[in-house]
Amino acid sequence: MKFGVVVFPGSNCDHDCHYVLNDVMKVKTDYIWHKRGEIKDYDCIVLPGGVSYGDSLRTGAIARFSPVMRALIEYAGRGGLLMGICNGFQILLEAGLLPGAMLRNTSLSFVCRDVWLRVENTKGPFTSSCKKGEILKIPVAHGEGNYYADEKTIKALEDNGRVVFRYCDELGMPSKLANPNGSVNDIAGICNGKGNVMGMMPHPERCSEKVLGSVDGKKLFESAINFLAG
Amino acid sequence: MGVSEKTESAEPAVSEQLVRDHNITPEEYAHIKEILGREPNFTELGIFSVMWSEHCSYKNSRPVLKLFPVDGPAVLVKAGEENAGVVDIGDGWAVSFKVESHNHPSAIEPFQGAATGVGGIIRDIFTMGARPVACLNSLRFGGLSNTRARYLLKGVVGGIAHYGNCIGIPTVGGEIYFDETYDGNPLVNAFCLGIIRHKDIARGCAKGEGNPVFYVGAATGRDGLGGASFASRELTDASHEDRPAVQVGDPFMEKLLLEACLELLKTGYVIGIQDMGAAGLTCSTCETASRGGSGIEIELSEVPKRETGMTPYEIMLSESQERMLVIAQKGKEKEVKKIFEKWDLHAVEIGHVTSDGMMRVKNNGKVVVNIPARKIAEDSPVYVREEKKPAYLEKANRLEEEKLAEPGDYNETLVRLLDDPTISSKKWVYEQYDHMVMTNTVLRPGSDAAVLRIKSAGKYIAISSDCNSTYCYLDPYTGGKIAVAESARNVVCSGASPLAVTDCLNFGNPMKPEIFWQFKKCVEGLADACRSFDTPVTGGNVSFYNENSGGAVDPTPIVCMVGLFENEKHITGASFVDEGDFIYLIGNNRSEIGGSLYIKNVFGMKKGKCPVLDIEEEKAVHTFCLEAIKKGLIKSAHDCSEGGLAVTLSESCIMSARGLGARIDLSRVYPASGSKAGFLFGESQSRIIVSVAPENARAFDALSGSFNADIYRIGTAEGKKLVIKFNEDVLINSAVSGLKDVYDNSIECKLKTQKNGDSR
């Protein structure tokens, strides 16, 4: 089983994701430089958070033109597991691998804090080891995490169970205060129709070790590993 | 950015007026002529003026800075040797850290001023070959009722967030004070810490005749022209006209530069590396040559520029950000260029190392600067300034405590203090900073000290920054000592042993004898305390001229203390943990109300005597507290500072996971004299509030017997209320949830209610 973490110029959670996969989860993990044109022999690839290309134009707007993206689109088409975290999610949207777009947080400020997520879908590979309705505490850190899509797209996402995570309070209830960015329907993460491509704003790699105060994030990586192990 | 149409014009002749305009005294000018054996030309004059500005040369502070202890068994690179100091943390690993001011730029353009302050200090750290892993910021603003102060706060916080979040280095802590003394003169001190193996420490030196000199990073523009000289003057109403002297930062460029430089340093092809910070190309070339005992020659036509028609003067004095100078091994040019190309950057060879000791600058082949490198870097003038005890002290130190009305309701006073933005939660600030990236943040902002793990080294460190400028105003010597003692205490509360210090000394105009006296006394206090705690000063920064038409800022020597944990298990938080735990006070209460935030907030006075600091007593408290933590006897430890006992106890309740209350009885620790308010809110030093599991109480008591520290069991963590009793009087009886609400939202409320009308 081999994992990969893509490095764009300006990625800054690449080391964190690599550490969690390679050193905490103990799965072999490579860095994949963004100029690489071919993706072979990987079972799961993570697009990490950061500020690729300095957020020029829009978040993720330039990174999607990196050579690795064409290879990743093919890889995802073959059913390869692909997870975008924060900036990685923004890049997936810009690349058209997931629908919708990101707006600035309604506060107009960057926000870094713990949020609670309700697991809405446990069929996909990244939540296969979670229970439906389970509440996870995972931090966010972004300025543009206000997920938006037109009504038709949102309806399609909701009807097909493609909303994977929703912001909620400690008890699992939706609330304005619990949503850190103003996203439609409190959406924190979504997946594609097949479920092999998933994007989320919160950072599971930041809460996968006891010393950091929470291991809730680890469940996502465990899910992917268990899914792959079959 | 528009490209200027200005064409290269003839340089002005050096006249007396021009010399004066460059802040060079007639004596200094005579010295320049002596060094050169001739008159300097315009570009050379500019070079001397920036290199001999206070910002670069420390000409007014050097004799005083000699007081600092700089040696210690753990110090690997000493203060002043390189861009930042380096301290051993064991097993072949070290930390490199430094704090630097960016006050003047932030006063004029808060967003870019603060952002480039962060960028500059990060460059200082990776220049040493270290990977930056944490930033902190020490900020000072005027009162939040002041429109300008609100504008500055928002701009500075926005700028720090912009830079730190983008480059991906967590901003894990720091402190903020609000006081009218900073109206118009905000302080922005940025700290960065990096991690490095001993064997990888890089040097800022140019050696080996013929070795190529590379320019890497952003192109040079006219921004930040003469910023170092700008920072060496008082601010005036016309200072906004200096806005071009404020640089613009590009954190994405710096992220690429950081990764490329660290990758390059791994190859071993680098002889020397230095960032182009203050005085840009000038400082980096002459300092590297001087350190290497060499000369250096560069050709300005090779320097990448983003504006046309730039003169040698402008190129040499530009402070455009995100630029580095790299001296590489001859023959490895291709390899160097390849690494920068990988990161979409260009490394341009602009010159080479020579053996004649000269800093020689050519423009299209014509020599435009020819100065002995060592002379300009090391031979700057040194002044011992006149000092005089200020007259204000006598009046300021006199406080007739008995005339102060005692509060009618202590609960109200407590709420008032928790609502004071200097005390209240800085959540509004730190939630805008990415404080978790790099997944090393063990104790998040809001604790006494930031606690980080260093994955690669398997180490844990604590960092705290502190300075109460009111104490320094009332008694600079004691105030200086307290700044060190408090930062050490914070590190101890988190469970670490204090290791070393970096400081940033913010004062007014040193030409004024009263200001120089404050400066000298503060440094004496810092130096004495650092010596007592065995924490050498590994570098830092002096910022003078923090002064405007309204006067100078209160003396503000910021101390950043770095501590090392013996064991991960020793990491200790500030908040109460479990119902039923015993609460102890380590240390003694005195009746000390002078200089407290209580009298400032309630009576609008900055008066009285600064709290006493007995170093031996302080050390005894630290030693005992740390030993008890190491023995696993302490569940939480919180330093008692601004707002006194009542605020400290409130904070330990507020920050606890479920708003745990406390029942406190102070009858046993009430001092013989003084008011109850002074007792609750006074700021006596050397006190720590700890919580201890009941089953460990006996061991804790016994342990205190073998140390010279006084302890008092003052209560129990229980319920949802904070209740403080004295004999039969209930002084405080408040729901923690209500206190928390005030504490958490104070700053945001103050910014929101006054939203309209904020302007420059």
How does this structure look, described?
The complex is a heterodimer of chains A (230) and B (760). Chain A has 5 helices and 11 strands. Chain A has a single domain, classed as Rossmann fold (3-Layer(aba) Sandwich). Chain A is globular. Chain A starts with a strand and ends with a helix. With 230 residues, chain A is α/β, with parallel strands linked by helices. Chain A has a 9-stranded mixed sheet with strand order 2-1-3-4-11-10-9-6-7, sandwiched between helices. A two-stranded antiparallel ribbon of chain A has the order 5-8. In chain B, 35% of the residues lie in helices and 23% in strands. Among the domains of chain B are: 178 residues, Phosphoribosyl-aminoimidazole Synthetase, Chain A, domain 2; 181 residues, PurM-like C-terminal domain (Phosphoribosyl-aminoimidazole Synthetase, Chain A, domain 2, Alpha-Beta Complex). Chain B has 760 residues and is an alpha+beta fold. In chain B, strands 8-10-7-11-9-12-13 form a 7-stranded mixed sheet. A 7-stranded mixed sheet of chain B has the order 23-25-22-26-24-27-28, with helices on both faces. In chain B, strands 1-2-3-6-4-5 form a 6-stranded mixed sheet. Chain B has 26 helices and 28 strands. The interface between A and B is medium-sized, with 30 and 28 residues.
